[in-house]
Amino acid sequence: MNATVNAKPRGRQFFNNPGPTNIPDRILRAMDRPVMDFLAPEFLEIHRACFAGVKRILKTDQNLFFHASTGHGAWEAAVANLFSPGELVLVIETGHFSLGWKEMAETLGLKVETVEADWRKGVDLSKVAERLAKDKGHEIKAVLAVHNETATGLVLPLQEVRRALDEAKHPAMLLSDTISSLGSMEYKMDAWGVDVTVGGSQKGLMMPTGMAITGVSAKAMEASRKAKLPKYYFNWELMAARMPQKFIGTVPVHFFFGLQESIKMIEEETLEGVFARHARLAEATREAVRVWGANGKGPTLYGQTVDRLSNSVTTILMPEGQTSDAMRKAALERFNLSLGGGLGPLTGKVFRIGHLGDLNEPMLLGCLATTELAMKVAGVSFGPGGVDAAIKSLAS
Ligand SMILES: *Cc1c(COP(=O)(O)O)cnc(C)c1O
């Protein structure tokens, strides 16, 4: 037997992708139980608790749907439920994920206009306000926005998009993708006047991939009754009529076993505590990267607008002319550290450190130190002292 081929790395894998994220043992244990009839009173109680808990996390008192799909399914549900063929929507460009939602909306038969943006700086919100003000005939039916652009590591201030809509007295709905900010960064669906919120299970909620969440305002429910795009599995009205679970087909009970535990964990820490921990870990990561790039030849923060840098993921730009492939490969294959790569046009040009979900200081420091090790092994130049800077940030 060839020992090196069959050898499994010792210790845990350090998993710092910005999704999926680490699944805590508590959630795995909660899911490790026999199946249950989804009409059983015991399950209905779990299901009820999950609906109530996710509404508290989204900060909404409105409608909520779970879809047995990834976040992409919830994107599709939002588009298919709200619009009729040929209607116009406005996509705020943030990066790879915003363009994905745009492509989906076009494919499903909508007209899509984009407010273009510099991916490193984030959108100039006055351009959004201008476009809305110009739309006197209210042709634009909705604004589609990615709250936390996981590809670039920048946040979009949704309150300001709301303000732009209000100031223009524009009735367009506001749709937001909170897939990588849900349960890791502040989000207030009702207070921010978001009509549809799209979330997923495998990021801040620390769950396996495969359950999507959609918060729907009363106004969006009303729009869905008039919308003519075809839908069946994702049809909110049909789902709402399937009481009490609001599911078309078999209810994935194990997801709810896990979700109940996830909500419990988040609320034990308190939402504010969860957000503060993410902010702390994110700032320590950024401090390390600032030092790596301080020699003028090392990797730097991709995002250039300081007050929009994400607390759930940091995107790091490689030095000119170098790809991130070799250092990511070394990190994974030699040291069992999984880092995120670049998406779309950023492939090879950046790498991403996910610092969301079930993560603490030692895990982050392990990741940052091993990232330095992988850069050294792969011959990437970087300023020394990044880990020290992170320690200093975490200690303060
Ligand atoms: C992960 C992610 C998606 C895609 O979600 P899936 O569950 O992989 O379909 C969409 N938008 C954002 C912002 C994401 O981070």
Can you give a write-up of this model?
The chain has 396 residues and is of the alpha/beta class. The protein has 14 helices and 14 strands. It has a seven-stranded mixed sheet with strand order 2-10-9-8-5-3-4, with helices on both faces. A five-stranded mixed sheet has the order 1-13-14-12-11, with helices on both faces. A two-stranded antiparallel ribbon has the order 6-7. The longest helix has 22 residues, at 271-292. It starts with a helix and ends with a helix. The relative contact order is 0.16. Pyridoxal-5'-phosphate binds next to helix 4.
Secondary structure: elements and pairs:
Blueprint: H1 3-6, E1 14-16, H2 25-31, H3 41-58, E2 63-67, H4 71-82, E3 88-92, H5 96-107, E4 111-115, H6 125-134, E5 140-146, E6 148-149, E7 154-155, H7 158-167, E8 173-177, E9 196-200, E10 212-216, H8 218-226, H9 236-241, H10 253-269, H11 271-292, E11 300-301, E12 313-317, H12 325-335, E13 337-341, E14 350-354, H13 361-377, H14 386-395
Parallel strand pairs: 1-13, 3-4, 3-5, 5-8, 8-9
Antiparallel strand pairs: 2-10, 6-7, 9-10, 11-12, 12-14, 13-14
Bound molecules: pyridoxal-5'-phosphate.
